[in-house]
Amino acid sequence: MPSKSMTKALIAVRAAVRMKILLRRLGETQEDATPLLRDAPKMLSERIAVAKISLRPASSAAQSIDVSTPRSQVSVNWMYNDLFAIHALLTASALNLLLLVIPLALASGILGWGALPTFWLNLLSLIPLALVLGDVTEDLALRFGNIIGGLLNATFGNIVEVILSVAALEKGLYVVVASSLVGSVLSNLLLVLGCCFFFGGLYYKVQTFNATSNRACSSLLFLAAIGVAIPTAAKNILMGDSSVDSEQTILWISRGTAIILFACYLCYLYFQLQTHADLFDGEHDDEEVEEEPMLTTTAATLLLASISVLVAIHSEYLTGSIEEVSADTGMSQAFIGMIVLPIAGNACEHMAAIVVATKNKMELSLGIAIGSSLQISLCVLPFVVLVGWATGHAMTLALDLFIVVALVLSVIHANFITADATSHWLMGVALIAVYLLIALAYFFQ
């Protein structure tokens, strides 16, 4: 059993970690923060330092760890730190109450409760798992430099979409794969960005953001749209040519395009993290205090692996019920993929982007909305095509014509609205309206 002083120190660590998570999520600015929040980074550092000292076995007046201190005792102390940090991560948001749904979701898949309960329970389970996965990934990335940390965030930032897409790919649900990934792009680019502009505009008459980084991201988004449009156009041209094996030709065009898009994403990462990192640092970096990781590397890695396994299990049950849910409810697979899955899968990012927009931190808000769109269109979508190539699944970038038209027009619309690097609430209305038009068309397909 831990001593009384150790218990107090552990409580201090838990409180400090919770404060750290809140500060990280809220992103308060210097102007609108209360005196407590303005002093919180300094208080937090002192509190964690004192707590960690208190956790060590007191072998001298300075309470430092003597060389004779058993390693097992030190390991136990760090284990307590990790347990309280994990507890803080799991209780940091009201959305994490949905973690209670996980046992029911697993039971629905194992016991066969029916397609509809299995679909919705497993869909709800993915929401808190995505939130915790993002927090753990960010915490682990703090232990490495900008390049490796950025790669970690890029790899695991959309791991839910990757696992869900691969699970659907294995079942041959190519329509669901394509529509869910394009739907995620449209959800971030229209719905999330529109809500950021709208709710931010309710607090501030006009908001501004970095024009240079916005133009760079806009050009890459248009590149991604072209990367989908060309294989689709080739499909419509070649289908009527009997002298060409159109399916194989389209397949190779898609795979070549996927490699080019993925290479462009790696260039974007190098641009963002190395050569032009100052453009993506945000608006208030001079006021921010350097963050420290809350979990040990071992704990963060194990937690990341455990959550990824859970996401894979829920994705398996979810995708296995889509065909039956579509037949029972009348919702098309395209509507489920384009609208339902992206909104649920990106719910945490949606909320985070809107909250920081109301704090007038538009760089961070656009980084979440447009950054996620770039990750999915330049990284996840090509990656799924390449996974299909490796596993013998004929996944192509030649999508349904309506999906491609919606994507290209949405990118043009978003680029036009953000061209002058300013925003207000009416721009948000315009973006949300386009998303609702697309959702309406898909609902009646």
From TrEMBL:
Domain Sodium/calcium exchanger membrane region, chain residue ranges per copy: 118-273, 301-441
InterPro entries: CaH_exchang (IPR004713), CAX-like (IPR004798), NaCa_Exmemb (IPR004837), NCX_ion-bd_dom_sf (IPR044880)
Transmembrane segments: 88-113, 119-136, 148-169, 181-204, 216-238, 250-273, 294-314, 334-357, 364-391, 397-418, 425-444
Membrane topology: Multi-pass membrane protein
Keyword Transport: yes
Entry's localization field: Endomembrane system; Vacuole membrane
Superkingdom field: Eukaryota
GO molecular function: calcium:proton antiporter activity
Keywords from the UniProt entry: Antiport, Calcium, Calcium transport, Ion transport, Membrane, Transmembrane, Transmembrane helix, Transport, Vacuole
Pfam (any one): Na_Ca_ex
UniProt xrefs under PANTHER family: VACUOLAR CALCIUM ION TRANSPORTER
NCBIfam families (alphabetical): caca2, cax
Job of this protein: Vacuolar cation/proton exchanger (CAX). Translocates Ca(2+) and other metal ions into vacuoles using the proton gradient formed by H(+)-ATPase and H(+)-pyrophosphatase.
Protein's recorded name: Vacuolar cation/proton exchanger
Source species of the chain: Chlamydomonas eustigma
